[in-house]
Amino acid sequence: MAMKDRTKNSGCLLCGGKRSKMIHKFSSLPKSRRGKQTLDIKRCSKCGLVATHPPQPNDHWNDKYEGDYWREYQTSIGERRIDERFEEFEMISEERIGYLQSFYQLLPPPLRFNPNGKFLDVGCSMGFLVKAAEDAGFKDARGIDPNQQDVDEGIERYSVNLEQGYIGDYEEASFDVIMCFNTIEHVSRPDHLMEQMANRLRPNGALVVGTHDIECENYLGEGVNWKHIKPAEHLYYFSKDTLDLLGRKYGLRPFWHAKPIENSIVTYFIRG
After folding, report:
1. pLDDT tens for residues 93-119?
2. Could you tell me the domains of the chain?
3. Across-strand partners of 162?
4. CA distance 47 to 45
5. Under 8 Å CB-to-CB from 205, ≥6 apart: which residues?
6. Nearest to 241 by CA among 53, 46, 95
7. Could you tell me the pTM of the whole model?
8. Distances in Å between the alpha carbon of 27 and those of 56, 157, 213, 214, 218?
9. Which of 247, 165, 166 is nearest to 209 (CA)?
10. pLDDT by residue (tens digit) across 116-167?
């Protein structure tokens, strides 16, 4: 099914609202984070979803993240810092799987997912989270990412099951657990991404989504200078309420919110 291009419909993709309030004009953004396009940031007056304007076309993700996104990042921070970042990503991934195991214990037995079943990381980069899931006991852990270079490097580094592609490449009801961190804010249609992830969960499957929190203390204190205000990269800015609302729209039940990491919100959904 062809995806409807948001550039032809300025209504809020979460609630359909037509009115929005400007919160950051392009001209007010630090020059280092403006990007090449003139993108403002607005908040839906009805549901509170924060998004860049004008909306970006559906091929935004393909153009930006199938290319040299990670390589450019590596070059910008240097090889020595890259090694430190790898260690940091590995540690964070282990913590995320630890929280997933805590979530499992919180669930009533009739709602529990298979803790050793089929696992998918959406936007997996080099497979840090997939490696952590394997180490935690998942028998079939895999990741998917649009960037072939990241996938190839992750396979070489961690010997994990990674594929270049998109969540829609998988059949419905395929996974017991899907995790998606720092990805949903980058895509032009986060509603489509959420729907596709929900549809690929098995009954009682768990979906974990993490993203930057537009209502965190850092943003409330720093405003336009908050480091995650990057309209050329971050097209949507969720709060706990708007992320929960997006999940509910596709039959997911927000069951738990993990202890927030700085600047972030992590919601644990279940599919009943």
Report:
1. 999 999 999 999 999 999 999 999 999
2. 62-270 (3.40.50.150)
3. 143
4. 6
5. 113, 175, 176, 177, 178, 270, 271
6. 46
7. 0.90
8. 19, 42, 23, 20, 21
9. 247
10. 999 999 999 999 999 999 999 999 999 999 999 999 999 999 999 999 999 9
